[in-house]
């Protein structure tokens, strides 16, 4: 199941590394229900079932996601897989979104290519959901709030880690990671806001330092799954410590 090639999409696996893709829309324009994009009911079923299967595996095994789900629960925003996730067809090349009005994470079943991609999308959107849970985020009216959450999502979800693995030998790892986070946050904002690139850049730059250094609930930047597992273990120990007081 993991990494199975998606015959409908074709292109080589390297595509995701080369093309800076907008991975998230905070308020995706959801397609009308019951209107499968391909027009083939069978292909819709396949995409949807595959999406559900990948989601289940991600929720059960991915350390980033497990940590975020635990953190949401502890913050009083327990996530229910049936209620808070929705596999749907999406417009364009968007992979996922967080719908704050319904507290639902949308997973774009027509664009999520494989298990690793699913895990990154779920992690990214759960960081928005976590921010939504812990703070009064004004997604629509304050672009700096959106910018902050996008910086955190790009920084902590592993969106920039895959690229890092390749570039770390050529550039300073830290510098490249920051540049990648900034660029992705700007792209994500431009995907959902009708504002100029300059305004988006300004919003990201204004919040960058504080939001880049806010690693909650990970406690550190989880550069790979091993770090994420350590972070999850630390989080559970933190939990245990507090519950013993
Ligand atoms: Zn996002």
From TrEMBL:
Q: Which GO terms describe its cellular component?
A: cell junction; cytosol; mitochondrion; plasma membrane
For the biological process aspect of GO, one term held by this record is: mitochondrial proton-transporting ATP synthase complex assembly
* A Pfam short name: Peptidase_M76
Q: What class of enzyme is it?
A: hydrolase
What are the entry keywords? Answer: Hydrolase, Metal-binding, Metalloprotease, Protease
The EC number on file is 3.4.24.-
Q: Does the keyword Protease apply?
A: yes
- Molecular function GO labels: metal ion binding; metalloendopeptidase activity
Family membership: Belongs to the peptidase M76 family.
User: Sorted alphabetically, which PANTHER family does this protein's record hold?
Assistant: MITOCHONDRIAL INNER MEMBRANE PROTEASE, MITOCHONDRIAL INNER MEMBRANE PROTEASE ATP23 HOMOLOG
Its recorded name reads: Mitochondrial inner membrane protease ATP23
Q: Which organism is it from?
A: Marmota marmota marmota (Alpine marmot)
Taxonomy, top ranks, is: Eukaryota, Metazoa, Chordata, Craniata, Vertebrata
């Amino acid at each position: 199941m993991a990494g199975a090639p998606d015959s409908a999409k074709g292109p080589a696996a390297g595509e995701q590394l080369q093309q800076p893709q907008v991975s998230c829309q905070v308020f995706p324009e959801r397609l009308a229900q019951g209107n499968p994009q391909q027009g083939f009911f069978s292909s819709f079923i396949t995409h949807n079932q595959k999406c559900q299967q990948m989601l289940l595996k991600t929720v059960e095994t991915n350390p980033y996601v497990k940590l975020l789900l635990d953190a949401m629960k502890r913050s009083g925003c327990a996530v229910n897989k049936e209620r808070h996730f929705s596999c749907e067809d999406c417009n364009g090349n968007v992979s996922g979104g967080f719908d704050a009005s319904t507290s639902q994470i949308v997973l774009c079943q027509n664009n999520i290519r494989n298990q690793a991609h699913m895990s990154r999308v779920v992690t990214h959107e759960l960081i928005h959901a976590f921010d939504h849970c812990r703070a009064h985020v004004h997604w629509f009216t304050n672009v700096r709030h959106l910018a902050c959450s996008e910086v955190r999502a790009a920084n902590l979800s592993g969106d920039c880690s895959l690229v890092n693995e390749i570039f770390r030998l050529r550039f300073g790892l830290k510098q490249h990671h920051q540049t990648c986070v900034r660029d992705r946050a700007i792209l994500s904002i431009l995907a959902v806001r009708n504002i100029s690139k300059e305004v988006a850049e300004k919003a990201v730059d204004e919040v960058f330092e504080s939001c880049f250094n806010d690693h909650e609930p990970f406690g550190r930047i989880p550069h790979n799954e091993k770090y994420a597992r350590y972070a999850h273990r630390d989080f559970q120990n933190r939990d245990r410590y507090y519950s013993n007081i």
